[in-house]
Amino acid sequence: MYTFKNTEITNKKSSEYETKSMLYLMGMRPDSDMVEIVVVDCFNDVTGVNDNFTIMLDVQSKNYSTFNPSRIGDSLYTLFDNFVSKFQFHDYVLFSKPFNHSYVFDSSLRSFDYSNIKPKTQQRIEKKLREVIIKNHKSLDEIKFIEFLDEVTFFNDDYPCSHYIKELSNFKSKTIINDLTYGNIFDEIRDKQSALKNSEIENETILEPREVLRLERYITKSQINSLIISRIIGVADIFKGRGIPIDFMTVVTNEGLGKNKDALKDTIQDCNSNLSRTLFDKGTSKKFWRLSEAVIKMVRTSESNCVCDLYDELRIKVKNMPPHMDKVSTLYLISLVLQGMNNDF
């Protein structure tokens, strides 16, 4: 059994760091491909899991401007508490601003384990952590204490918010979209994440990890990817199929797709289904981001605004198309980007 304690509503600066740590789980770790869901302010600030909860990555994020060893020790407590809980977590991450250079052997590392921290600093960290553990648990198992410290990952963040969106988008060209747009996307994700904390879960209990989903404090990678690509392309929600891009009507006429209302509706639904399958299938998602990047570049640089001309130009530049993206679906994607540009994205 697991009981949720000390859940909280955080301020804007803390929320920003929690959002950074969520996006770090989704796109900046070697095991990020396995993270499909991020649980918010339940087990910890954020916890990344796969679909069946056989992988659980726990993160405590701290935005202290001054992060001395005592504060580091204190901040490790919730991670330790999960380490000794009945649930099995697979990494314990302290996500923070960079440590003072004097605390570590190699200050160039953003991600490191406990062995990178100098002995004198370790002593001060451990002194405080021991105090907090004994205060809350009344005793301390020294073997588990040492085992825990050997399991912790420290991530020192000095990236701007836009960096995390760029990393998750998988665009090779990081300048294809301006930093203001990336920053606005980050803010929208932060607000959605913060809104999840409005529910009351204090003292709620669960018997197994996946039961946490009933508390509805989670965001899926699919939701984040959908939001990012929709905002980058410049439409409200690319996968809702609400309305038809004006430029796509030429395709409908030329390809004979709009014989009646139902046929047109089916075409739009098929296009959105193909876009969704390509983006949300692990095996093809990167190809979708590459295709979207190529379309955006081409639309911005081409002398033509004709969807069919742009498609012919794209096929010359992109030899290996994602398997679900047939001609009509690709023409639809090009039309969406053209519409987005008209909306000044």
Explain briefly what this protein structure is:
This protein is an alpha+beta fold. The chain has 13 helices and 9 strands.
Helix content: 40-55%
Q: What order do the helices and strands follow?
A: EHEEEHHEEHHEHHEEHHHHHH
Question: How many strand elements?
Answer: 9
The assigned structural class equals alpha+beta
Radius of gyration: 23 Å
Strand content: 5-15%
Mean pLDDT: 90
The poorly predicted ranges are none
Largest sheet: 7 strands, mixed
Q: Helical region count?
A: 13
**Through-space gap between termini:** 48 Å
Give the overall silhouette: elongated
What would you say this structure looks like, in words?
By secondary structure, the protein is of the alpha+beta class. The chain is 49% helix and 10% strand. The chain contains 13 helices and 9 strands. The protein has a 7-stranded mixed β-sheet with strand order 6-7-5-4-3-2-9, with helices on both faces. It has a two-stranded antiparallel ribbon with strand order 1-8. It is elongated. The model has no long low-confidence stretch (mean pLDDT 90).
